[in-house]
Amino acid sequence: MAAETISTSPLVLMYHGVPRGGRAQAINGRAFERHVLFLKRNCTLIRPEQYASARGSLRHPAVLLTFDDGFRNLAEVAAPILRRYDVPAVFFVSSRHCTPGKYLWFSYLKMLGACFPGEGVTLNGKLVRLKGTERRTGIQQLTSMLLALAPHPHAMYAAIDAQLPPLESFVSEAVLADECAGMTEDQVRELGQDPLFTIGGHTLDHPYLTRCSAKEAERQISENKTWLERVTRRTCDLFAYPLADFDRNTVEQCRRVRFKQAFGVGRNGVSQFAIRRVGIYSASLTVLGAKLLCRHYLPTQLIAPWKQGYEPALYGAS
Ligand SMILES: [Zn+2]
Fold first, then answer.
1. Is domain 3-101+176-314 in CATH 3.20.20.370, yes or no?
2. Where are the domains of the chain?
3. How far apart are CA 262 and CA 202, in angstroms?
4. What is the pLDDT of residue 1?
């Protein structure tokens, strides 16, 4: 059977931030516009409501674009490009960094790795070396130490605030706004009320949900949903698991608060509460084309490198 006649279910692509510049991220505004033009030519770009019924072919797949985390650059850089080419998209927004001056934990670690001028930091009395070639392993070590603090995620955020150098002390205001800040409440409302776009839940603080107590996981999911619905004045039906981390309890909690679909990454499954996505981390159109063609069948380490034991902060895989 010819490739163009084989019917395929929609492919869901997952992007993160799209900064104007991009010190720590591969896909900036110019690269993203090239992606959109490539996708317009080679795919049928669908809305989330079409996910269950849309069909494509191997040569011309149906594709849903999703963007995780709710960075301000998505409202200021990605959304204008999507509007220019009339491309629908879903934005999954974490509440925490929508408060000015607050940042998600992995944004902190990414910038510490990319911009910190010092040779080390101290956490709970332990020196973590960040000098030269030690930086990569140092950031991995610090990430593991922070994620091990209980209760998750409060103890992790408290330790960053109390013991580690503030982001503002080593990252310029312009870079913070372009790469780390979350959308303002007005931007969340504006995107939520644009018929081209859909806002979905992504928790309050972007924790690993399976590391949270049951009560905390429920609070992370439901209070984020309530906030998004208040701000957008729309029902919030979609959810993306931060870091694609979920289990049976998490799925149950999402059902209980009446999400209709939830998205993971890679080989999570195919149910409406474990919809697979393919993460896009490279500006290269060749890589994008290969991911469209290979769908979910590329080796896991290319789709979701942190599943191989790396931490997400180094790769922007969140
Ligand atoms: Zn995320």
1. yes
2. 3-101+176-314, 105-169
3. 10
4. 53
Q: How many beta carbons lie within 10 A of that of residue 214, not counting itself?
A: 12
Give Cα separations from 118 to 109, 129, 145, 156, 189 (angstroms).
Answer: 14, 9, 19, 21, 39
Contact criterion met (CB below 8 Å) for 42 and 289: yes
The Å distance, Cα 318 to ligand 1 centre, comes to 4
Query: Tokens standing for 188?
Result: 């969340």
Instruction: Spell 1-17 as b/e; 16+ CB within 10 A means b.
Output: eeeeeeebbbbbbbbbb
Convert the pLDDT of each residue in 122-131 to its tens digit. Answer: 999 999 999 9
- Cross-strand pairs, 201: 93, 239
How many whole angstroms from 164 Cα to the centroid of ligand 1? 22
Residue 245's pLDDT is what? 94
Q: Cα(104) to centroid of ligand 1, in Å?
A: 9
Q: Which residues pair with 8 in a beta bridge?
A: 56
Distance in angstroms (rounded) separating the CA atoms of residues 282 and 161: 31
Is the confidence at residue 297, as pLDDT, over 50? yes
State pTM to two decimals: 0.92
